Structures are given as structure tokens and as C-alpha cells.
Amino acid sequence: MHIRRFDRGYTRRKFLADASRGILTAGVIAPLWEVLAADGDATAAYPEELLSLEAYTRGRIKTGDEIHAGNVEHVKNLLEPIRYEQILKQGRRLRTTRTTTDLMRLSPWEYIEATLRNQGKARFDGRGNVVAPDGRPWIGGNPFPDPRTGLELFAAQTLSWGRHDASFYAFEVQDVDVSGKVNFNYAGGWAELHPVARVSLEPRPYWEQHQDKLRFQSVFFLAPHQHRGTSFLNIWPYDQKTFPLLYGYIPDFRRIRQLPTDQRFEPLLPGTTMYLSDAWAAGDPLHTWGNYRVVARGPFLAAISGGWNPDDPDWRHGTHGGAKGNSFWDTTVELVPEAIVVEAEPTMFPRAPISKKRVWFDARNQIVIGMVTYDRMGQPFRSFDGAYSLYERGGKKVMDGAHPYWSWTHVIAADIQTGGITRLQQIRQLENAHFSGANQADLYDRYLTQSAMLRLGGV
């Protein structure tokens, strides 16, 4: 049992005092990263009040309970404002589970091993890019596992969105309006591959002929029929002051066109409330945003584990809430002992419809667990909250090489000003031809070239 001086009042005072002094060493009882590096478990870094929702709420909400409009006030301080409003006024509910403390369940295994192996080796070069000691691109894992600034948190997130060398996500998207009507149903695939900082795929750590690039990323759609074959390809330079190249293929035109790449605050397809800029809360090059600053620290409720649904053959999730009971995914959340909240402003987008974004990072693994953007008047505009999981439950698992697959499971993006909601979920497969997973050897040829765009456009 932890001694009583580490109660909720103590932790709150410590978070506030550290923030006021500009201190960003995570952990309350002990430095978090030292504890994690020693034994891979976060328990020794935090008091009981930050490791148990029941202890935090003094028994008002217990593990396994559901958070709803009748009890959400007990955890209001653990939620971003838009999710709180959804629970209070739109019938959103959250199931609760115990806090995950095992670091190896919070990111891909190889990514964590590379983080431990390469800790302390990263720095920013004169252009503001993350580099290894020899000045070449980063060599793998999180470059700043014990971050000292908001810039370091965003740099790590921008470097590797999904934390795999390569990922393919089969997905479904539904756009639900304020009346509960589903206006659009999309299905497609999202692929991303890193030619640098590779920890699983050969060659490592670089694909030599492409080490000037950060990632290849594409998205294509198979449904609805009028958008079937539509695809987009992003090629990101490693230099984070340079915009990606963006190519689009529209089947009606039967040709590939290069598209403006700085218009990143527009939906790719009608009806969606998500922009290119929203991807992983870091959908733009690092230095096209600025004024990164840590604005808060403290506990948070997030869907960091338990989000995989093995009971459905294609991993689909149930829905609830809203006007017709279909606005929100069924979601399981846990008490995150410490979240680091960072604000940033779009500095290279003079026509951006937003003035800033506020992003919550889990201090244990630095993954994004919430985002709210604000309009030009400074009012809450849109939110982006996702769920993650190790794809393992009981005797069921999805393997990624020698270890269970870790990834996102679903996302809810909401426009608080119009009431529109976009629901996105990762599913097992599309048309028995495109399968979710990590580090597939043929990903580049199948999805990440202009030739691949033409082939996909002919489906």
C-alpha cells in the first residue's frame, strides 16, 4: 500500500507545481522512464490514486462500471470537453477497465525494444529534424521516451504514426448527422510504410534509396460504388519543413493528378469530418505547425487497451448514443495515470479554419489519446479520440511476427458545432483481398506507388 501522503491532492499539487516551473519529468513517486526502463511496469512511478479509477473517484465509479450522464461529473476532469459534452447531452457511454501498467502491452514489441536500445541518441539538427548521432535520419523507436518539451512529443508522433515499419488497415467509415441519420458509408484501405527508422523490415534501419523520405502513405476506397477506385498517395520528405507530395486518382478521369498539398483542412470525401491534418493528430509535417507548448499534466480516461473485438469475425464494434442509438462506438476506457497536454498552432497555413489544437499524450508510451481543435474565434471545433489495443484476448490473438499485433481499433471524430460525427473502425479484411496487419513485405508494390493507384482504380 502506498503511504497516505500520496493522495489525490498531493498528485494534483505536484502536477500543477511542475507545470508552473516548466518541469516535464513524468512520474509522481519516481521518474516514469527510469521505472519503465528498469522493469517495464509503471506501477512504481505512481500512487494508488492514479492507478485505480475506484481509488481516484473514492469508490463512486468502480472498474467494470459504465460512465454515463448520471455519473460523469465524478470524472469530468479526466475528459476533454467535447467527450464530456457527448456523455452529458448525447447519450455517449464508456465502459471502464483496470489500468494497464505493462509497457509491452502499450505499443508494438519491436518498437519498444528499439526505444530502449536507442534511448539518449536522438537530437534535432539545424533544420529541426530528428537525427541519429551521425546526423543521418533516426534509427528506430521513440527518439524521446522521456520528453522534456511539447516539440519532442510531437516529433516522435510525426516520425511514426502507427509504430510499425509498415501497416495496412482495412477500414469502414460512417458519417452520422445530428439527427442520427447515416449519410455516408465508406470502406477502403490505408497503407503506410517507413523507409527510415525501421526495426522489423529489412533493410534496417534504412531503405537506402529512399532515406530522404519519412513515409509513403496511401488511402483508397472500395465503397460506395460511386467512389470505388478513388485513391490518394502521400510521399513525405524527411525534412519536416517541406510539404508531402500528394497524388490523387479519380476513376471517372482515369488518370493520376498531382494535388495541392497544403490544403490539409478539407475532407477527402463528402460528408466526413476528418481532414488530412487530423491523421494521428500529426497529419502535417512537424514544422508546418509551431508554438508547441505543454499546458497541463494529469490523469485522463482513454481507450488505451481492450478495444479489439475478437467476438466479431471482422472485428466490428457495436454502437450506441445519439438521436438513433448509432452515433458512438462502444468503447472501453481506463485511467491513464498521467497525460501530457500539448497545444500547437498552424504556422504555415494562412487559411486554416482552426487557430490551435490541444492534444493529450499518454506519458507512459507517448501515444495520442485525445485531440480537440479550436476555430479562429478560439471556440472548440472538432475532436478526435481513438482506441488502441493489443489484439489479444483470452485464447484469441492476431500475431505480428513473434508477438501479438498492436494497433488502433476505432476512432470517433466529431464536429461539435454542427453535431456531425464520423465513425472509423479497423476491420479484419476487405473483399477477401486486403487484410489488416503490420510489416507485410509486399505493401509498397501493392499500395504505395502510382502503378498501384492505377491497379486499385481498376477494381
TrEMBL record:
Matching InterPro entries: DUF1329
Gene3D superfamilies cross-referenced by the UniProt entry: Lipoprotein localisation LolA/LolB/LppX
UniProt name for this protein: DUF1329 domain-containing protein
Organism: Solimonas aquatica
Higher taxonomy: Bacteria, Pseudomonadati, Pseudomonadota, Gammaproteobacteria, Nevskiales
